[in-house]
Amino acid sequence: MRLKELTLTGFKSFNKKTVLTFDAPITSVVGPNGSGKSNIAEAFRWVLGEQSLKSLRGKRGEDLIFNGGGGGQKVNWASVLLTFDNQDHKFNVDFPELTIGREVHRDGTNVYTINGSEVRLRDVVELLAGATLGASGHTIIRQGEADRILNADIASRREMVEDALGLRLYQWKISESEKKLTKTEENIKQVESLRREIAPHLKFLRREVEKIKKTDELRAELKRLYLVYLKIESGYLKNTRASLNSEKHQLDSDKKTLEIKLGALKHEANPSEEKLKNLRGALIQTANGLRDGREKCSDLERQIGRLEGIIQFKSEIKTSAVLPTENLSRDQVQTLTEEIEQLVEGGFWQKIRELIKDFWQKIDQRERAVGADNHEEELHKFKTEQSDLENKIKLIKNQEADWLKKEGEINLALEQTLALAREADRESYELLARRREEDAKLALWQSRDDKLKIEELAFERELKEGEVLVDKEILNYREAPISSGTNEESRDEQTARLRVIEKLKIRLEDMGVDSGGVLTEHKQVEARDEFLAKELTDLAASRVSLETVIAELRARIDEEFTEGLQKINLNFQKFFTLMFGGGEASLKVLTEPKRVRASSAETDEPTGDNLMIPDEEVEMRSGIEIKINLPKKRIRALEMLSGGERALTSIALLFAMSQVNPPPFLILDETDAALDEANSCKYGDMVESLAKHSQLILITHNRETMSRAQVIYGITMGADGISRLLSIKLDDATAFAK
User: Fold this and answer.
1) Most buried of the four, 72, 128, 162, 570, by CB within 10 Å?
2) pLDDT tens, residue by residue, 9-53
3) Which one is predicted more confidently, 649 or 349?
4) Among the listed residues 702, 679, 703, 705, the one whose alpha carbon sits nearest the alpha carbon of residue 691
5) How far apart are CA 222 and CA 273, in angstroms?
6) Minimal CA–CA distance to 671: which of 693, 694, 635, 697?
7) 396-446, pLDDT tens digit by residue?
8) Of 141, 14, 121, whose CA–CA distance to 66 is shortest?
9) What share of the chain is helix, strand, coil (3-state, %, to 5)?
């Protein structure tokens, strides 16, 4: 497994997508203070699941997102992707390449991904734990943290060592198993409590079951009587229903025949309102036609009289020798014309002649030029029009005769229709009287049917009650070897039998035992008790199994811890000797008591003058003690080391821990800041030794440390507050320089 690249987008000072490729054993990240170098280490820590924003130099999730300023545009989310070559399947997934990602948005939402698929934080942590990786511990060592292992208490040191040995996964499994064990213990208590709760009720139900057995004989007798009653009653109801249905069929048939006759009579003889309406309408239409024809004749006769006057007038003008000599105005002519028309309509011919004579005397001389031919044409025209009007009068007279004939025919049809209607009414009255008789028969039948329905409902009710009080076998009453009857004697017997049945039902109800419900509940509660007993057995087995797993995991941790501690001591001694030129250094398991004050729930509060010191509980805790012996010095305690000596010791120990179960990569964030030139060379030697087992990412200002790297990334930052990346491969640069 090998670290391939780190991709940052919008993370802290890296506002745009920035990719760091790690294809060399040692990669160095350099740059001036404040340029964003440490943001690289924090990006590693964050994508590996770090939850403490304080350790990432922030207070809120949005503090990890580039916030703009100095010309840089603000972004709304940050993303970090970490890509590994997984050809050796060190990560327990079936992918040759693995990319772990994490995103944060300004609303604080975090998204974790594995190869682009969204997952839980727990999935990421468990996957990394299998490869001895994590957000904290020995994988990422920041400036000032190298001394943390020396300042930690013995228990914290042991946790660091276990983390370095890859035992954190076992610890998580133990933690999960302990949670399951606690849950199992709680479940056992709950199940035991449930069994205690149902025990009295189960005892009561068992007593009820005994009472139910005593009612079996009574229920058997009730069943026998019910079968007899139901068989006879069903036969009676069936026969009666068949008789009523047959009678109803005959009544319906008779009534239907009457209805058909009534309908036919109404359809054939009785005139419909529409027919009478049509005949009366035709009669009115005929009268209107006669009236219209006569009005037209009168109008035409008036027109003919007018034409006769005009023709006479024209004829007199033609024969007259008097010609007008006086001029008339247009208004006078118009007035004279209107007077003549009124006189013509009134038939005042003598007056018309006088006006005409006077008119010709007043006609202008220019008019004398009108020829006799015009008078002849006008006379011929008027006579032709008169002849046409006379012909029209003849046609109307002929139509009037037709209307009179049609009027007679319509009156005759109307009289016949009304006569048929009177005859149909008489026959319809007779049929309606017969229908009333049939309705009375149907009403009588209906009362008998209602009574039978009441008896049928009573039968159904008894059948349901019998099913409840006896059992479902009561529904097979038809198969009972009993003959059914319908006579009055059998009805009396049925009534007496039903009274006995009612008495038996009352006795069963007075016993207060619902056999079906009690037996069912008894079975359910007993099954519930058996289930809970089995649950207790299973939970007890699960508790034993979990305790065994926890014990095995702790034994494995102790075993691997002991073996790993021996290996750490070997490497610790080697690196310590390399750093100090001799001396001794080792880790030793130490067990010491830890005093814990008892909780307030277990002790009395000191009151009044009776003041007492609360009790203290003593717990034994296991941890790691660091033993050192510097060459040429009598220094055996960590408190006696100088700052440089502490730095070299912690570095030697951390390097030793990382070599026992080497992580895929190791990030050293300015851990060499406190070293002088001589010790920097020793530090560089150890770095090269570590690079044989893990990829190293060195964030440093130290030139000696830089010289050990094959690839150097330079981080710069301008006035816009954006970190920019420059890279150089030293081998290529050296070859180019030569």
Assistant:
1) 128
2) 999 999 889 999 998 999 999 999 888 888 998 999 899 888 888
3) 649
4) 705
5) 70
6) 697
7) 777 777 667 776 777 776 676 776 666 667 777 777 887 888 888 888 888
8) 14
9) 65, 15, 20
Radius of gyration of the chain (CA): 63
CA angle 159-98-120, nearest 5°? 60
> Between the CA atoms of 585, 589, 593 and 595, what dihedral angle is there, to the nearest 10 degrees?
80
E strand or H helix that includes residue 26: strand 26-30
Cα–Cα distance, 165 to 571 (Å, whole number) = 13
Q: How far apart are CA 716 and CA 249, in angstroms?
A: 108
Q: Name the band, by pLDDT with cuts 50, 70 and 90, for residue 698.
A: very high
Residue-wise DSSP of 530-591? HHHHHHHHHHHHHHHHHHHHHHHHHHHHHHHHHHHHHHHHHHHHHHHHHHHSS-EEEEEEEE
- Which is more confidently placed, 354 or 572? 572
Residue type for position 551: A
DSSP sequence for 468-501: HHT-GGGGGGGGSS-----SHHHHHHHHHHHHHH
b/e burial code for range 610-629 (CB count within 10 A of at least 16 → b): eeeeeeeeeeeeebbebebe
What's the token pair of residue 373? 């031919």
| Degrees to nearest 5, angle at CA 701 with 700 and 707 | 80
Q: Are 201 and 525 in contact (CB under 8 A)?
A: yes
Residue 596, token pair as written in the block = 């814990």
Q: Read off the amino acid at residue 499.
A: R
- pLDDT score for 508: 77
Q: Is 651 exposed, middle or buried, given 0-12, 13-18 or 19+ CB atoms closer than 10 A?
A: buried
Token pair of 240 as six digits: 């009666």
Cβ 255 vs Cβ 432: under 8 Å: no
Q: Please, how many CA atoms are within 13 Å of residue 606, restricted to the half-sphere of its CB? A: 7
Give the pLDDT mean for 236-244. 89
3 state SS of 27: strand
How far apart are the C-alpha atoms of 76 and 10, rounded to whole Å? 8
Tokens 């003593």, located at residue: 618
pTM beyond cutoff 0.70: no
Q: What pLDDT shows up at residue 607?
A: 44
CA distance 283 to 409: 9
- Which tokens in the block code for residue 664? 């895929």
**What would the two tokens of residue 738 be?**
């030569």
C-beta of residue 586 within 8 angstroms of C-beta of residue 627: yes
81, 309, 475, 601 from 44: Cα distances, Å: 9, 131, 79, 45
Rounded to whole angstroms, what are the CA distances from 50 to 61, 135, 272? Answer: 12, 5, 99
Residue 2's DSSP bridge partners are: 85
Letter string b/e over residues 345-370, b meaning 16 or more CB atoms within 10 A of that residue's CB: eeeeeeebeebbeebbeebeeeeeee
Is 370 a residue whose pLDDT tops 60? no
